[in-house]
Amino acid sequence: MATFQTINAGGMPITVQKDLRVPMRDGVELAADAYQGAGDKPRPALVALSPYGKELQAMALTMPPQRRPSPMWDGCIEAGDIARIVKEDYVHVIGDLRGSGDSGGEHIGNYNAGGVSLGQDAYDFIEWVAAQPWCDGNVGMVGISYFGSMQVLAAAERPPHLKAIFVSGGHYDFYETTYHGGVMWFMPRAAREGRGGDSGWAFTDRVKSRMVEKYSPEELKKLVAERLADPDIAAWPNLVHVLNYPVNHEAWFDIVMNDVDGEWYEERNPITLAPNIDIPVWLQLDQGRGWTLDGTIELFDALKGPKKLDIGPYPPMQSRPFIEEHDKMFRWYDYWIKGIDNGVMDEPAVSVFVEGSREVVTADAWPPKEVEYKPLYLRTRRKLGVEPELMGTEYAAPDGFYQAPLTVTDKVEILSWNTDVFEERVEMIGTGAAHLFVEIDQPDTNFILRLWDAAPNGKRQLITTGYLKASHRELDEERTTEGNPYHPHTRSVPVEPGKVEEYVVRLYPFANTFLPGHKLVAELSNNEPLADEHNALLPPDAFHLPVGRPVTHKVYRDAEHPSRLVLPFTVS
Questions:
Q1: Cβ atoms of 134 and 159 closer than 8 Å
Q2: Residue 515 to residue 571: CA distance in whole angstroms
Q3: Residues 521, 315, 446: CA angle, nearest 5 degrees
Q4: 73: three-class secondary structure by DSSP
Q5: What are the structural domains of the chain?
Q6: CA 181 to chain centre
Q7: Is 0.85 topped by the overall pTM?
Q8: Residue 53's closest CA among 71, 22, 30, 25?
Q9: pLDDT per residue over 103-123, tens digit each?
């Protein structure tokens, strides 16, 4: 039963309709709360949808925004600033997706809910909102991360009353959200289960595993045994637990069981659906979360209607409750929903904040400047240079490191190479690649590459990362170009121990100017340090599955093995 109440927020009365029931076409009802200003006049509505629970989102009215690394930061408070939205004369409607919170129905795997597309539910939800007497028939959407992905899924269904969307920090290619370069990322576990700075989904007993639904107990037992044969999985207690006891770990179980790309991840992939979207779309993301930036740019390129791409500065995690980017959002919606000619469409489509110089570069496409891909070669004495090595392996002996599994050591071994200090400003904007000739003594390992801008005073800023599981080294030759490699990740091919292989690691998009006196530092490891100046900005679960076996790595960088970085230098 819906209830009405009036609250005061920031000296402003807000009318709250609690526990509205929103019917879906199959009879399931979703739960929603609506916040609006005083008076009965119809207003445009901004819809927020996720499985994180509408009651959690209401904390935006009572909790000051928290920045990482605040212990009060909660990654799931993502629906936006309720009081600000109401002040701007919009109705803020926050709904629970089916199978979560107070909504009915079942949620089964991925972006599928009880066999129903979440985009289909979003369509019905938006059209119901548009028909309410307190809405003037014009609807936009609001929210980051999961809420952002829901905006794209909704827009692809083309609900008639959805006029525009503003997506900040969305996740798109679901495989790349969960496996970076084939290396498992732990953060999706927190999003479901509520660990490491996330409350997680609003639990119900109606969230089910797609794998459990699809396979018989006998088939599933065999598949689980195969997955546990991976020594990386077998060495990590939580994964052993999840695979043996999938109940209440449904979504995480499905992710762990699907370690290569394919149909399970492609189903309703927002990027695949992008050509269906013809309404105006603003895409925004801050730097430092490269896999998401990659997907954001790919989505931007696939969109056909009016669009904006806005890449902001560090830090990579926004406040919770989410408040950033509201000024831009209201300019967008005031133009497309309220019809206010504020000049937003007279501005360039692409805006990129360049770290280092702290300048904003604008253009009509990504990258915003012409770039020339140039190599920086790994040289002896841990140097990066513009010229390749002339000596053979017998004289330019390989660099190397031995990494014991983290079950027996706390130390993560890191190889590094650096340029000489730059004498002039050097600007790079775009994707990049690392061509590494490496010999390992095991069938698999991880390659984790991180590039830093090191200042003369010892401070440094992470500018981009790259991940590649060695068994996922296969390239998509049709999509791969210089400095812009793609891996299909559709199968795992073990490495022949003792064989030198060329591994091409994709470096996620970035924008940085190295100022005079600064150096570029490249760090290579097969695990990542659990604490450093970058990881302190991320939630505790935002790291990757360590390698569970001892591995010796030899990195060759001689005349026959030109290991190198290929980076996007802008053309002045």
A1: no
A2: 16
A3: 50
A4: coil
A5: 3-209+256-347 (3.40.50.1820), 371-570 (2.60.120.260)
A6: 13
A7: yes
A8: 30
A9: 999 988 767 776 788 999 999
